[in-house]
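[Meeting: bench + compute handoff]

Bench side (C.D.) handed over the final construct sequence. Compute side (W.E.) agreed to return the predicted structure before the next meeting so the bench team could plan truncations. Sequence as handed over:
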Amino acid sequence: MTIIDAPSTVDAPWPVGLLSSKIKGWIDRLGAVWVEGEITQWGVSGGNVYGKLKDLEIDATVSFTIWSSVKAKIPADLKQGDRVIALIKPNYWVKGGSLTMQVFEMRHVGLGDLLERLERLRQSLRAEGLFDQDRKRPLPFLPDCIGLITGRDSDAEKDVLRNAQLRWPAVEFRIVYAAVQGDRAAAEVTAALRTLDADPEVDVIIVARGGGDFQNLLVFSDETLVRAAAACTTPIISAIGHEADRPLLDDVADLRASTPTDAAKRVVPDVAEELAGVRQARSRIGTRVTNLIRIEIDRLEQLRTRPVLASTSWIVDSRAEELTRYVARGSELLHRVIERSETRIAELTGHLRALSPQRTLDRGYAIAQLPDGSALRDAVDAPSGTPLLLTVARGKLSATAADPAADPSRER
């Protein structure tokens, strides 16, 4: 058994050179492979390019080297943030103990592939209802505090602040800086969204970037970022600033602004316009009140010129004769009623007197009453010796019944 084939032990360790040669042999057997990723670092030194290539989905990065002889053959517009496919060959440098990826070819990923992926994601999110208009939240008329997510010292930040403060000087901002391109952009913008959405003082959130090419704007179509924006309860304005390419954030946001400047104009009203509107409203109100008062004054004047109000004595004058007639008629009717009543009373009095027992007594008759107070109507009811009370026209007499005299009518 040769030393190359002998296993490594504590008593018989491999030389570093043997280990290095074995590593180089294993790596060389891999050969050249095509890989796809995003350029996250791109630097030129001595005509050579040194950079890093990141996986599109997981957190994995490799360094690569493009020698000057190959650099002349690849597209000249390659830069950080581009999505590419590359033919690379792992190369282990035995002397330095480092692993490098040597690039032999590199080209842009076909835009057709990217657009197809983006369109599939767009259709999936639309099917979930994330783009529906009924879930869009209205913007506040005058927000007390505006959240702004943008790159540090970016033109987008300056445009939003300057235009918003020109329109409403008292507006307040809460700014969270985040990368707006590159491999960190999606995660940082997502974290900034969640931070501002959790702040109860922030009334609306602006995500601003000053434009860019299609590939640079792909970060705003990241599914995680888009879903985080859809889950926010605070209204969101997407101000990416690119009319031709529409990232998915524009569709899920509550309002899409064409530029950061447009976002500033949409989020706060113009104080000059509002003051002019107030002045116009006050003028219209004043005009209407003046017209109403004028109309009422004319109406009062018309009422005052009417005869009913022109002379205060016309009512008494017009009603005096009528009142006199009513008084005379009432007096006449009253006298008639009294006369008829007096006549009726006299008639009743005559009838009463004619039927009165006193009138009978005045004609010489008397009323005989038995001891029990009942009137004597038949002589047989008062035997001889029965005490009687005789009532005459003027006074009463006591008498005793005697034997009744013979009644001629009975004899016959």
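W.E. noted at the follow-up: The longest helix spans residues 314-355. C.D. will use this when planning the next construct.
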